[in-house]
Amino acid sequence: MTHQEISHHRLVAQKLLEARPNSPQEIVHHLGAMQAQDYAMAKWAVGSRCDATEAAIEEAVNSAKIIRTHILRPTWHFVAADDIYWMLDLSAPQVKRFTASAAKKYGLDAKKLDKLNAAIEKLLAGNNYLTRDEIMMELNIKKTSSEDFLSAAIMMNAELDGLVCNGKMKGKQITYALLEERVAKPKTELAKEEALAKLAKRYFESHGPATLLDFSWWSGFSPTTCKPAINAIELQLNSVEIENQTYWFGNEYSNEVNLRESIHFLAAFDEILISYKSREASILLEHQSKAFTNNGIFKPIILENSKVIGTWKKTIKKDHVKIETQFFTETRASEKEILLEGIKAFENYLETKIVIE
Fold this sequence. Notes:
- This protein has helices spanning 3-13, 24-31, 39-47, 54-62, 84-104, 110-124, 132-138, 145-160, 179-182, 192-207, 212-219, 223-233, 271-274, 288-291, 333-339, 344-350, and strands spanning 34-35, 66-71, 75-80, 130-131, 164-166, 175-178, 237-242, 245-250, 263-266, 301-304, 307-316, 321-327, 354-356.
- By secondary structure, the chain is an alpha+beta fold.
- It has 3 domains: 3-182, no CATH class; 192-250, Arc Repressor Mutant, subunit A (Orthogonal Bundle); 263-356, no CATH class.
- It has a 5-stranded mixed sheet.
- Strand 11 (307-316) and strand 12 form a beta hairpin.
- The longest helix is centred in the N-terminal third of the chain and has 21 residues, at 84-104.
């Protein structure tokens, strides 16, 4: 297997070449967790893998079929409702180390955070959806530049404790709700080893071919912790050795997969790049600084035949959406026309006219 084949099969595994229809929640469930700090782009990351419109995906979030919360690495993710509790039980203890450290800078220890949780629970009880600013106002925490980090630490702690998650959108504002009012808590829990093995299997089936270090990066667990999880499921996966690296992938992998032509305009922070420690299979080293920064900001990308060839950005206008493209190398006008055919999926998703400049 070559790097070209790896990048193509990742498209297949991530359902970017999927022919069968999938609902938004099925896409999120398949991928396990999808990075979602940029809410608008996170919705498109789902939409680019199914035929759902932006409105349909937002409805899946509003109706709690998809949950947006902090999980895995300390950032926002989309998670399917069926997965939220076992995944939170698994990952929260390690992610809370970051929030505890941040809260401690403001004089908040575990006891004070628990007290704040109790106050937040009272505020949100009865499906009362509030924005972060509204919650902080009720807690008498003033909104200043420094307190904004404090409010983020407080709410992230409440998320990781399984108390809150996203509520219904309030116009364009994101709200919080009580998790147990949105998704019923299961009667049984998974042991940590079982949950980590389940997470590993989900990752390699939906993101493979990928390495141990890729899974470690995506999950936030150390390679030492991840290795036994892979050992536990290795008979349920395929693997291949490339340049002394073992790449794991699902049993549905087939050498017969057609390496067909494809164009994709993908979201900022899309899983096709951000979910791997090493990204050389999808983007040349000399182009990486044009697609993402050292401090973890990922731009929307253009893929041609599973390779990143440029970036794009959108601007919302009164009666249309303007799209601007920037290709890494000079592109002939005839090729550009073919490439820009790939933006039609985004036009259908937005249900709005798109103008390319």
